[in-house]
């Protein structure tokens, strides 16, 4: 009533925020049954060796097919799941589904690694290493086919994260740092943790052919990665020029729409069958 009284525009403004909040509350509510109802599914995006174009691994990316709202992207629902703690349940589901699918591919002779995104809340939850161990055991999956992607934010708790990373490395699982450059960790800290891969955030790749400052920062990242002994993966490559710049400057791996969008497991399977 108040909002209406203060004019049409303000009413809409009020409404817009109200809708956003209502949608958020609905997602929060509906998540409770969404795993059981099989509303989540994974798409996979290949990560390629830039020089040869061969697929190094596939990254699992979760989607929610909501019965009323349609397909909801992770950037919308993951922050809500993190707030409510539901991310831990979802993360366990993602991990198991990625391992199940990977094992199925292995049985068909498709030997491809899978990378799984892990929220820092899931990573720091008490039993994370056990959840990983159980998923590997349950699906009889070889541990070095699994790569866990964490973000720099886990470094806010360096001691704890170091311990978890060591336990995961002992299992034989690979670790990569996602969205590198958007947080505050240093490459030398990551090197002391024996991280396997560092993924340069898309925001840097966007600027490499148009902004010489960004280009030199990316060159430095690649140089440092080389001397600290981990391979870099460039994220969000959309253009041939970007791929060429990265190859010329020694970046080993890349991912992006230029190579492939995230696609269904069936499509990944087709793509990989053609390559073998
Ligand atoms: P991310 O892990 O950094 O994944 C890369 C995102 O960039 C994906 O978006 C991918 O579809 C998109 N992308 C890849 N190449 C390009 C490109 O060339 N251009 C553009 N414009 N975009 C590109 P998506 O699938 O919407 O996922 C967004 C984020 O949601 C992910 O970023 C990750 O942080 C999170 N996420 C996705 N799946 C999971 C999951 O299973 N668990 C957790 N905890 N987070 C997830
Ligand atoms: Mg990722
Ligand atoms: Mg990323
Ligand atoms: Mg991200």
From TrEMBL:
Signal peptide: none annotated. Residues 24-276 form the EAL domain. It comes from the Bacteria. This is EAL domain-containing protein. The chain holds residues 466 to 741 of 741 of the full protein.
